[in-house]
Design the sequence.
């Protein structure tokens, strides 16, 4: 039986089409996914992300524990900041990519992906056995609402008093602060998965609907509209952001995925996967994740083969027509010697080859609107 977020009835009322994602009934779209995509690029979209996990890690050895359990270095992370990280197996495979927020000196919030939430929480509990630390899975009690797009800050400012308005405008990318919005206490993070400026709002389930309606009301004059997972996927692909189960998995190591910089070998602590990953530093993996730009109108899709001179040289992990850019884009793993931008390749589109060129990621960068 699939789970429902605290906002499920609200999505029904808004006429959402639903899909099963990570064991949750989630809004796929409310209107057309193309319209929702453009709404986020041009104004702002509101997303229900309450299917994501929230795992609180606290205690005297919280830093030492996270430095062992994850690949990043959390000792150098200031309070109020966020860090993108990975949890890996002993063999160096990726269990999940996640964001870690440092709320206090000895208190962190780990946010895994929905499909891996239970797995990550259980694995953190297991790895905590030898540490003076408390691991609490708060996923079932926490709602997460995202407001993404160029008008996101203006929308939140319309909900905040003077003191909190200053906290919002001064909040840097990959940082978090507790503020009051429309009378509700919210953990506000300036992170996102769309390539736009935007925020993610953590609140207890019982106040989720009130917050959703307050954001919707404040956003009415700024073009805000509800958006689903279909547009979220096209937005993240344009921004070159990986999706677990496509670009990342147990059969993928961080260096193949272009995430070697996320792994800290400067920290003194041993960490799960270090023995396998450290020898790979500075080397060239056999395959690399690249961006592909299509020369025609037909799109590559996950699982399609990448070929050169009739020889299979890789596999597409994600692909679609870019609504913003107007041409097909894809992410793919290809043989490392073919990963340089400008390399001409083809994708086997169900028996018909189509030309694609390796390009720098991300495909889309938001314009400077200052």
Sequence:
């Amino acid at each position: 039986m699939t789970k429902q977020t605290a906002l499920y009835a609200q999505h029904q009322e808004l006429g959402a089409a639903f899909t099963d994602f990570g064991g949750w009934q989630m809004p796929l779209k409310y209107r057309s996914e193309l319209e929702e995509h453009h709404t986020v690029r041009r104004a702002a979209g509101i997303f229900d992300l309450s299917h994501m996990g929230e795992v609180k890690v606290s205690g005297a050895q919280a830093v030492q524990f996270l430095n062992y359990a994850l690949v990043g270095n959390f000792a150098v992370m200031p309070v109020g900041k966020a860090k993108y990280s990975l949890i890996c197996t002993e063999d160096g495979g990726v269990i999940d990519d996640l964001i870690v927020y440092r709320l206090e000196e000895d208190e962190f919030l780990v946010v895994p992906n929905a499909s891996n939430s239970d797995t990550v929480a259980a694995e953190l509990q297991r790895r905590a056995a030898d540490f003076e630390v408390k691991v609490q899975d708060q996923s079932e009690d926490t709602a997460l609402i995202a407001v993404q797009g160029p008008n996101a800050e203006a929308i939140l400012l319309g909900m905040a008093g003077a003191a909190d308005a200053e906290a919002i405008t001064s909040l840097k990318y990959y940082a978090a602060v507790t503020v009051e919005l429309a009378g509700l206490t919210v953990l506000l993070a300036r992170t996102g998965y769309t390539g736009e400026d935007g925020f993610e709002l953590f609140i207890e389930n019982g106040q989720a609907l009130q917050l959703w309606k307050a954001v919707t009301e404040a956003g009415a004059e700024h073009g805000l509209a509800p958006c689903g997972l279909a547009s979220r996927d096209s937005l993240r692909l344009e921004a070159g952001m990986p999706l677990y189960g496509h670009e990342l998995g147990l059969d993928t190591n961080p260096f193949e995925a272009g995430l070697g910089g996320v792994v800290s070998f400067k920290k003194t602590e041993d960490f799960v996967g270090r023995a396998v990953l450290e020898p790979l530093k500075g080397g060239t993996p056999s395959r690399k994740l690249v961006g592909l730009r299509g020369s025609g109108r037909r799109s590559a899709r996950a699982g399609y083969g990448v070929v050169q001179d009739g020889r299979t040289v890789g596999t597409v992990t994600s692909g679609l027509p870019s609504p913003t850019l107007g041409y097909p884009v894809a992410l793919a793993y290809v043989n490392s010697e073919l990963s340089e931008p400008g390399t001409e390749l083809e994708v086997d589109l169900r028996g018909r080859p189509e030309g694609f060129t390796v390009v720098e990621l991300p495909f889309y960068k938001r314009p400077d609107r200052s």
User: Anything to note?
Assistant: Residues 208-219 form the longest helix (12 residues). The domain at 55-135+253-283 is CATH 3.30.70.1400 (Alpha-Beta Plaits).
